[in-house]
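Researcher: I'd like a structural prediction for the single chain below. Treat it as a standalone chain; there are no partners to consider.
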Amino acid sequence: MPIKIPDSLPARATLEGENIFVMTEYRAIHQDMRPLNLLILNLMPTKIVTETQLLRKLSNTPLQIQVELLQMASHVSQNTDASHLASFYTTFDQIKDKRYDGMIITGAPVENLDFADVDYWPELCDIMEWTKTHVHSTLHVCWGAQAGLYYHYGIPKYSLPKKLFGVFPHTIIKKQSPLFRGFDDIFYVPHSRHTENHLDDILDRPELELLAVSDEAGVFAVKSENNRRFFITGHPEYDPDTLANEYFRDINKGLDIDVPKHYFPGDDPQQSPVVRWRSAAQLFYTNWLNYYVYQTTPYDLYHGQLQ
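Model: Treating it as a single chain, here is the predicted structure.
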């Protein structure tokens, strides 16, 4: 079933070229069903790339999903054309009276800053507070996960001695969790970050459940006990060439960066990357939408209980 997005969003052509079903506004309003209302707070600098990656993962479900894109009013994007933002993005003041079935808060390349030093941190705190009463289920990704864990639970992030960069094997702690239903015993996820959360900090909070970890990448998936907030420290939505593009970008800048681990065959960057995370990534987003958004959200968002 389709994902409903604006006709002229650049991601549409890419997704249709991959035989992913996207729906026009006209066709959507003639279906007798309530779509899931999903909000994406896109903090990544390459917003069009991130839009496409996330929409691709959200599309493989028998649900109709209406997506809105949110940007920070307190930050000026340097890498996305202003006309694109004006055409497809909204700001918090414009949507703060609305309610949503689900929300995704993406990562951002600000890990080496203290949270309070990020220019849009006060606005992000307002949004995360607002999700408690206006969003049924919120998924925090990478730095967005670290920000959410810190804001909601006071869990700090810690600097790594060197960048965690590559595609790492993970195992499931809560094997009965619907979030990982259908997963293999070992699954792979890309990571690209300079900071981490510590396992003991998660385990010390009874309101949190640790769901999945990696021997090399550490904590991966955490959720709140009430299933309203999810935190993942990697990027399952990444394209096959995302880490390669990041690696060669930094090499061309003369930066000291290691070859991403477990990514290029034989760790040879002249070889094409091997994709080992695509199916797990798709299943992850489908499971979140199905079990933690669709099956539990109130039909009437404005009269259901969001606490």
